[in-house]
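User: Here's a chain of 491 residues. Predict its fold as tokens.
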Amino acid sequence: MKLALHWQIAIGMLTGAVVGVSLNLLAGTRETTVAAARLPAGLTTLTISDSPNHVRLTWTTTDGNSGEAVVDGTRQTVGATATVDELARTQPEVADWLHRLGRSPARVVGEAAQKVGNLFLRLLQMVAVPLIITSLICGVTGLGDAASLGGMFLRTVLYYAATSAAAITVGLLAVNIFRPGLTGTAAPAATGPAPSGHSLGDLLFEQVERMIPTNPIAAIAESNFLSIIAFTLAFAIFAVIVGGKTLAAVRAAAEAGFEVMMAMTMAIIALAPLGVLCLMLFVTATQGPAVFASLFWYLLTVVVALATHALIVLPLILRFVARRDPFAYARAMSPALLTAFSSASSNGTLPLTMACVENRASIDNKVSSFVLPLGATINMDGTALYEAVAVLFIGQLYHGGVLPLEQQLIVAFTALLASVGAAGIPHAGLVMMVVILQAVGLPVEMQAIILAVDRVLDMCRTSVNVWSDSCGCAVVAALEQRAGVLSDRPT
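Assistant: Prediction complete.
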């Protein structure tokens, strides 16, 4: 008897985590003194000490100068970078020495697993754009008239705004209760990302500009989801307005394309257990326990807040607005949620989310094809919550106290708007956080404090993002049924 897909993915995730943690503990450290014959040009000595949380490279050059580079996930070393990826951005030549000459066995296996996992993500990304285009056109043209589309759009946006506001409120309550910046031992890092120079107004106007592609074909090629969705919606709406044979031809072409893309998507989804295993192995093999201990209260605050929103707020909405059983609905969405957790990409998970909503949760394609692509672009409950908690955590560290209420309200409002512009890719929330830090006068470089644990929290908040989008489908479908736009969902 073949196991259900969600059990296969769960087993893959658990296996990857166990293997990764074992590698981390047993083979996560390596001390290397590079032999003279292997030294890079211009060096006379090179020593590499690689461990999950503390990587140190020391060297001397042929002219007698010495140098040192440190990666310290626990942030105890002033001037150190927080992650190996950050080292690759700031000192690419030094990072190359580490990768070629001194990686620990755990890092070697973890990065190899990451390559395999990334192939799975690329397959999902390959089908995402054509699936969005064909499904949106099917959804809009299937509604039959512009009035029905307008009603669905209004209900969808209201749901997204309400749940994002609720998520931020939960985050504010959690950070004021736990006060992680006052109970932990974290210290500001000396270096970090440069200021973006963008105000909130600039950011919002950029989102409006991105909605209007100068070249729709280029937007498709570059996977600019906001541009793709805006143009596809406009195209489908005007097909409805034109009507007649033109509408019939557009709808027939879109339905044929959607049928093919769904078949391709289901074939790729069969590889999800392997992809999830590899992605989890990479994260657990290359992240050590010390980094989590050093930011324990911050981690606890974010996780509790995300869990509260995902396990209490959204299920209550499902129960009383959509009138669906939250447990049954979560079970139906489990393959998408587990994949979102392991990949930390809501855009990459979108094809699987659509498949689960339609095939496992029995949501009408007219709803899912409209609500999910829009949600993957503008509805980021987990990201908005996370950004609010992270900025207030940094504020508590910087000021040595709780931020005033008026500044917390600024953080809440800015996080709500900035989350709309966050891309559905790993670490996208960090880019938007710069805007929020600037809005309340906090130094942008203090963002480096949380980089070491951002990947793990990114996985958690992405799952919440996808769960909120999925719940939105059920809510909008129920409201559409009550309005008489859709027939009752299949039982």
